[in-house]
Amino acid sequence: QVQLVESGGGLVRPGGSLRLSCTASGMIFSINHMAWYRQTPGKQRELVALISSGDSTNYTDTVKGRFTISRDNAKTVLLQMNSLKPEDTAVYYCNAKIRQRAYRDFWNYWGQGTQVTVSS
Q1: Which residues lie closer than 8 Å to 30 by C-beta, 6 or more apart?
Q2: Phi and psi of 111, rounded to 5°?
Q3: 87 contact partners, CB below 8 Å, separation of at least 6
Q4: Is the dihedral of CA 66, 72, 73, 75 positive or negative?
Q5: What's CA 13's distance to the chain center, in Å?
Q6: 52-66 confidence digits (pLDDT tens)
Q7: Which residues contact residue 76 at a Cβ distance below 8 angstroms, ignoring those fewer than 6 apart?
Q8: What confidence tens digit (pLDDT) does each residue in 95-117 have?
């Protein structure tokens, strides 16, 4: 089995910073990409940032220049969030596309989510 465990959410004032961390564990042969999504009540889950196995990155327009996705090691992804705004408030989910054995398909895995609240 594969698990993604997130940490680092919380309450922060507008303009503040938070760092989210997500570590993958279990039977893992290789990881294609790791990403962060977020979701607010009544809305679809949206991609925030993604980092490929080659370390190329993509960001949604609303976080460009404020958020940075990076890898701490092969199985841990970080999301540094600066200049946070109230509209960044959401549950943030870690996502990874993982192959558990050689020559098998990649599957999508999700963390349990961590709440980020930006409020004064």
Answers
A1: 53, 98, 99
A2: -80, 180
A3: 62, 118
A4: negative
A5: 21
A6: 999 999 999 999 999
A7: 21, 22, 23, 24
A8: 999 999 988 899 999 999 999 99
